[in-house]
Design goal:
Layout lengths: L4 E3 H6 L1 H10 L4 E5 L8 E4 L1 H24 L1 H14 L8 H21 L3 H18 L1 H7 L36
Parallel strand pairs: 1-2
Antiparallel strand pairs: 2-3
Amino acid sequence: MAGLDVNISELSLHPRRVVEQLERSPSRSVRIRRREKDQQDLVLVTAERAEQVVAAASATTKIFVELMRRSDLAVTLATEVLPAAFPWVRYLPKEDVQRFVAELVETLERADSLGNPAPVATLVAAWKQTAEVHADPELAAILGQEGSAFGGTRPPGKPSLRESRPSKVDGTTGPGRVS
């Protein structure tokens, strides 16, 4: 986030001044720097700007999801341009890139319906870790050995045997459905 940064002590000592700066800033936000190394910085933003950001992200997600549902060309293009957003996908096998695109579209839609971007960040992080394994042939060989302490590797969206057992509730399978 480019823009105004203030220390948390400045917010505490001069709250009106910080709010005035926030209201004058183009982003309508200010980063609050915290001194403790184990504490994340905070972002103070106007409610109106926060609502605008959410609305823009939601609209973009809905358009993208619908394009992907309606057009094989859109899926092909998304797969081809994915390295511009995530350069590490170049280490994934082609079928994994296609699986990542499909899971990304599904996760974007579900996360948007919750108003929570965390599932998208989690999915991207998991696929990035998979790409890191593919990028290191020695690591891939070690992790790919059946019977090793690590077990075989699998892409993020592919459930393990434990995760794919039928659920006691609805009988379906999938990640997180453990009996």
